[in-house]
Amino acid sequence: MYAGTYGGQHFCMLDTVNMVNNIKQEISKGYKKVIFDNINEAVYFDIIRKIHKIIRLLDNPNIEYYYLCSAYNGQDVYESYCKKNKINPILTVKCSNLFEVHQKGNLEYYNSITNSSYVEYSPTPKSKLFCCFNKMPREHRINIFYNILKSGFLEKTYSSFQYGHDIINQTFRDKQLVDTFKQHKDIFPLMLNMSDERQNPVDVRQGDFIYHSDSYFSLITETLFYKDYIEAGESIFLTEKTFRPIIHKHPFILVAPTHSLKYLEDLGYKTFSPFINESYDSIEDDNKRFNEVWKEVERLCSFSPKEWSEWQHGIIDIVNHNFKILMNKNSGIIK
So what's the pLDDT on residue 171? Predict the structure, then answer.
């Protein structure tokens, strides 16, 4: 039995004493397991510290404690954190494939209400080079968008950056970066297929198909990239940003933590080597990995029409395989 679920975005702001008392009340009813539910996120160490404090205050060795998240390597990240800080591991971390099944469900729902069929990959000339969707201004997204601007790729891509104007006032950042954002200040907020009614585009809408069918690949800027940006260690945390291109049968470059592509392969997906140089995925140094990612973006963007045609025909089997794998996914705990 479960004592309940606790967690979420504002977990650390909740009153610890009240949480302890609430859990004790449930335990008094005979429950033997407590789940700290942070299913929408990765393994964040500020949350882990608070959970440990709660468990110490509960002081009940007969209870099993679980942390539910969507970091595929959550248990390893948690144990590494405990070892580094000389803490006794007292949680079992369980990972859900929440974002995979959400994207599957979103596509199925869209098709049901529009009477549409699944998209077919079409190796035809595209008007844009790639898609790159950015909302929250995380450091790696800022750097990616800066490279898009200074390389002159903006008009050749479907790119968004809703909060780009915020960067202009962050004077502590690299001056050339800030100056580049200032030069383009009139484009912000730069949004694609968003509205007051659709402020967080995690579902599937008609316009989404255009972005993917009319560009060669997706440049996915995931939630996490730099290990030191937030306290999440080396969490492999893949969200709807990664699975959106898969349901659209779109090849991608993944701007994410080291070994993220490897985890996708462990889940049954295929990545795009040798059509995309994916050596970046094994690079531990974040700055070097970022540079290799951008080097590959520039290489692809230099293709001739003939090279793009050959490239597209080469990846057909991969995008079809990945689509099939995702659409066969079911909800549940995967690790």
Answer: 60
